[in-house]
Specification:
MFS_trans_sf
């Protein structure tokens, strides 16, 4: 392997430790809530109520919706690297609160601060990785951020049930310290230097990355950018007035919205019940581990084929099979609702459909939208555009997850899953009609394609 590619992979590995912590934060509440309801394990003076349980789950999203706008504002002022560092410090603060928890208000603070850190780190990672990676491995490195996040969630699922409340914090503390220290040694993004008109620094960074031939492309990608407007209202106006940015926002926002409307958050929440409905004797904590392993194995497929098959084909295959698996789930619940005698013979079907769904989702629909967010926007609008797309997705995901119980009560499980399947069908058609192939293209070439649509 080229030594420069090894350098890029090493840098992204360091950055992705933050993504691991984000995934860990997402999965942390699942094994922790039972501990807070157990008088022998809780660090709190009183056991938490059902209302407090719902707040512990949802407050992460509150922070995550706000978090991306911090790098959106700061990344063009102080740089991408300081934003990565600040996100790491926010995660570190939340982890210290885990270790020192004394009351439920501190648990609420953990979730909000973790959400802020998650929002900052996720958007900063996508922007930074998209800007430092060589064209031939950019897709692989961008999809790796999603994979490492899934690995972090799986770690929380796998470790959390078997260690103490405080130990879940100490484990994360060690990992996050490595991340924060590592960020100090990575280079600043060459695109940030180009925005600031610092040609010498941009050239030196590109030389370090083995991309010195891309100097002209990097400067062309931010051509016409005022170095001081990235944090002003003008940056927001450019999202809507520059045609390439407008198309980037339309494509990424639509994909991220449809991704959440496919019900992934709700399906994750409902996974244990699906296992029980299938007649499985697997314990709920082991069921979540199986789901986590399925997601991880499937997500590992995406980077191996993304630079061969391309983004569009992975999205098309993934959304098609997601629609099929969710339709099967809906059909099973319909047969169960009408008390069909065949249900007793196909108790295995929900489990099969659920595994098929997560496998299909992670090979494309779960990873490609975030990868496209990291490579579609112009340099001066990348942070702002990424923030809008990601926060909208999280807001919709929050709404779908919290409204899932009501949907099942009002429409029934069958109609609910068919609605999720329909969102996947819409995503398939949308990809076919609007999503351009970005495989093997420089960031500047992607802008030219979007500007000509």
């Amino acid at each position: 392997m080229d030594s420069y590619l090894k350098t890029q992979i090493l840098i992204v590995s360091c950055v992705n430790i933050g993504q691991f912590i984000d995934g860990y934060s997402v999965g942390w509440s699942a094994p922790i809530i039972p501990k807070l309801q157990d008088p022998e394990q809780t660090p709190l003076p009183e056991l938490i109520t059902e209302l407090q349980v719902s707040w512990i789950g949802s407050l992460l999203y509150v922070g995550a919706i706000v978090g991306p706008y911090i790098p959106s504002y700061l990344s063009n002022i102080v740089g991408r690297k300081p934003c990565l560092f600040l996100g790491g410090l926010l995660n570190l603060t939340a982890i210290i609160l885990i270790v020192t928890t004394r009351n439920v208000a501190m648990v609420y603070a953990i979730r909000i601060i973790s959400g802020l850190g998650m929002g900052m780190v996720t958007v900063s990672n996508l922007v930074y990785v998209g800007e430092i990676a060589s064209t031939n491995i950019r897709g692989i490195l961008l999809t790796s951020t999603s994979i490492i996040g899934i690995l972090g969630t799986l770690a929380a699922y796998s470790i959390g049930p078997f260690v103490s409340y405080a130990a879940t914090g100490y484990i994360a503390l060690v990992i996050n310290l490595i991340h924060v220290v590592g960020i100090l040694f990575i280079p600043e993004s060459p695109v940030y230097y180009a925005i600031k008109g610092k040609q010498t620094e941009a050239k030196e960074t590109l030389r370090f990355l083995g991309r010195v031939d891309d100097l002209d492309n990097v400067f062309e990608s931010v051509w016409g950018t005022n170095p001081d407007e990235g944090h002003s209202w003008k940056a927001w106006i450019k999202i809507f007035t520059v045609k390439a940015n407008r198309w980037s926002l339309f494509i990424t926002l639509s994909l991220c919205t449809l991704q959440q409307l496919s019900g992934v958050a709700a399906v994750l929440f409902f996974a244990t019940t699906i296992f029980q409905t299938a007649g499985s004797s697997i314990r709920p904590d082991l069921a979540t581990i199986i789901i986590g392993v399925t997601r991880l194995v499937a997500s590992l497929i995406a980077p191996t084929v993304v630079e061969r098959a391309g983004r569009r084909i992975l999205l098309l295959v993934s959304t098609a099979f997601c629609a099929l698996s969710l339709s099967i789930l809906g059909t099973f619940f319909y047969l169960s609702r009408v008390k069909s005698p065949v249900v007793a013979e196909i108790g295995w079907l929900p489990l099969m459909a659920l595994i098929m769904y997560f496998f299909s989702y992670e090979i494309g629909f779960g990873t490609m939208p975030s990868a496209l967010v990291g490579e579609m926007f112009r340099g001066n609008a990348r942070s702002t555009g990424s923030a809008v797309a990601m926060t909208t997705a999280w807001l919709i995901g929050f709404g779908v997850a919290t409204g899932f119980g009501s949907m099942v009560r009002v429409f029934g499980g069958d109609v609910t899953f068919w609605m999720f399947a329909f969102s996947c069908i819409v995503a398939f058609v949308f990809t076919l009609k609007f999503v351009p192939e970005t495989k093997g293209k420089t960031l500047n070439e992607i802008q030219e394609i979007l500007g000509s649509q």
